[in-house]
Amino acid sequence: MKITKDSIIGDVLDVDFGCAPLFLEMGMHCLGCPSARGETIAEACAVHGTDPEELVKKLREYFGQNDA
Questions:
Q1: How far apart are CA 55 and CA 27, in angstroms?
Q2: What's the pTM?
Q3: How far is residue 51's CA from residue 63's CA, in Å, rounded to a whole number?
Q4: Any residues with CB less than 8 A from the CB of 15 and at least 6 apart, and which?
Q5: Sorting pLDDT into bands at 50, 70 and 90, what band is 8?
Q6: Which of 34, 26, 25, 57 lies closest to 8, judged by CA?
């Protein structure tokens, strides 16, 4: 799975829940909420006033993906 700002949070967490702290660091403490799991990274970042590209970068590093 290639992580993008359009990735669904629940899908990312289902691949490896170990990445949850990256969401928590950005202020997304509602990861268990069904609504949050269905949001894209961009949608969640907009609600929480954070930069989706920053979170995508951290997630890609976590999953060992390059930025290409």
A1: 11
A2: 0.89
A3: 19
A4: 1, 63
A5: very high
A6: 34
